[in-house]
Amino acid sequence: MTTVITGLGVVVPTGIGAEAYWAASLGGGSAIGPISRYDARRYPLSVGGELPGFDAADLVEKRFVVQTDRFTHIAMAAADMALRDAALDPRAMAPFSMGVVTASGAGGVEFGQREIQGLWREGPGAVGPYQSIAWFYAASTGQISIRHGLRGPCGVLVTDETGGLDAIDHAARQIRRGSTAMLAGGAEAPFAPFSMACQFGHDLLSRERDPSRAFLPMTKGASGFVPAEGGALFVLEDAEAAAGRGADVRAVVAGHGTTFTGAFRPERSAEGLARAARAALAQAGRDAADVDVVFADGLGTPEADAAEAAAIHDVLGPRAATVPVALPKSGTGRAYAASAAIDAACAVLSLRDGIVPPAPNLDADDPVHGLDVVRGEPRRVRLGTALVLARGLYGGNSALLLCHPDTWRKTHGRTPAHL
């Protein structure tokens, strides 16, 4: 049973909506700037990837907005966009045939910050009833399922920054088990003082105050990563069901792999990330020679970047020097569990148009660990297969293989047994 992507919704600092994000990506746009959601002057981190002009009240009903945190607002908006893009109405489907799975690493931190401040200022009576649900990682899944009447398999993954890819795989598994369609992806809104203070301990955040130099993965200037808010959700469908309703297939979910190599030790991730990539290729029935573009994780520290480069060289062999590598998050920041889902959305759009977007803020003469990182201008390439990589701060490694539908049809005379 083949799983395909028929819709995508994207809410990122460089653009609200998939096409706005794609246009900004092709233009090398960067949205990293001074943090404004709280007074960051007393904190080591001063820049981030914030959503400009995102007003949940314009996209989500008020009754949902007041009950939930910003990360759920982002997820709900992205879900709406994905369903519209897929031209799919869940309420017109058979009961229990569609579900949703989302990923989050931070949860409802901004909502929780307000409630904790109210508790200390005014006492327990200041804590509202919605705090009990708004902070929870599963809030986005729950609210999306309620809003759209999704009574099929629903869940949430808290697998750190690999979560976006893992959610897509989890959804594909549910389709193989009989679901007709799934919504899947990730959303994050980490910009609250307590939440960000919790991140300083791992010493991976950039302390650079110049936004254009704060996040430079795979370069000699790499000095940590910049966090971001945002999200991406996808409509995944059984290929036969999608064909039966005349859906426009964006990409085929071909394979996925995951491993674990230890918390806060990204420099040890080379072997685990390579194994995850090979597992994704094996599941898809493909090999390294089929990879046309790599969407790299790009954590942004010298040790972590060197480990990822080693993994890419390990998997691709001599081709690692010539296969285009995309780093779109260098212009948006890393949105934790949503980050890999956003990269997957970029990969789908790249496959559609045959273009690899340039990595914002990266100088043309920066060394890039022997990889062909696309910089400066977008590159037009014949693209059939994209490998998306992700690593979590807590040790997870994940790889997702996406194929252009024409490439899948040409290279698979029969449907692989795993799909």
How is this structure best described in words?
- The chain is α/β, with parallel strands linked by helices.
- It has 2 domains: 242 residues, Thiolase/Chalcone synthase (Peroxisomal Thiolase, Chain A, domain 1), CATH 3.40.47.10; 159 residues, Thiolase/Chalcone synthase (Peroxisomal Thiolase, Chain A, domain 1, 3-Layer(aba) Sandwich), CATH 3.40.47.10.
- It is built from 13 helices and 16 strands.
- The strands form 3 sheets. Strands 1, 2, 5, 6, 7, 8, 9, 10, 11, 13, 15 and 16 form a 12-stranded mixed beta sheet that branches. Strands 3-4 form a two-stranded antiparallel ribbon.
- It is globular and about 65 Å long.
- The C terminus is likely disordered.
- This is Ketosynthase chain-length factor.
- Belongs to the thiolase-like superfamily. Beta-ketoacyl-ACP synthases family.
- It comes from Actinomadura graeca.
- Keywords: Acyltransferase, Transferase.
- InterPro entries: Beta-ketoacyl_synthase (IPR000794), Ketoacyl_synth_C (IPR014031), Ketoacyl_synth_N (IPR014030), PKS_Beta-ketoAc_synthase_dom (IPR020841), Thiolase-like (IPR016039).
Give the topology, please.
Layout: E1 3-12, E2 15-16, H1 18-26, E3 32-34, E4 47-49, H2 62-65, H3 70-86, E5 98-103, H4 109-122, H5 131-134, H6 139-148, E6 154-157, H7 163-176, E7 181-188, H8 193-199, E8 230-238, H9 239-244, E9 251-260, H10 270-284, E10 293-295, H11 302-316, E11 324-326, H12 339-353, E12 355-356, E13 372-373, E14 379-380, E15 385-391, E16 396-403, H13 405-411
Parallel strand pairs: 5-6, 5-7, 10-11, 10-15, 11-13
Antiparallel strand pairs: 1-2, 1-8, 1-9, 3-4, 7-8, 9-16, 12-14, 15-16
Helix pairs in contact: 3-6, 7-12, 10-11
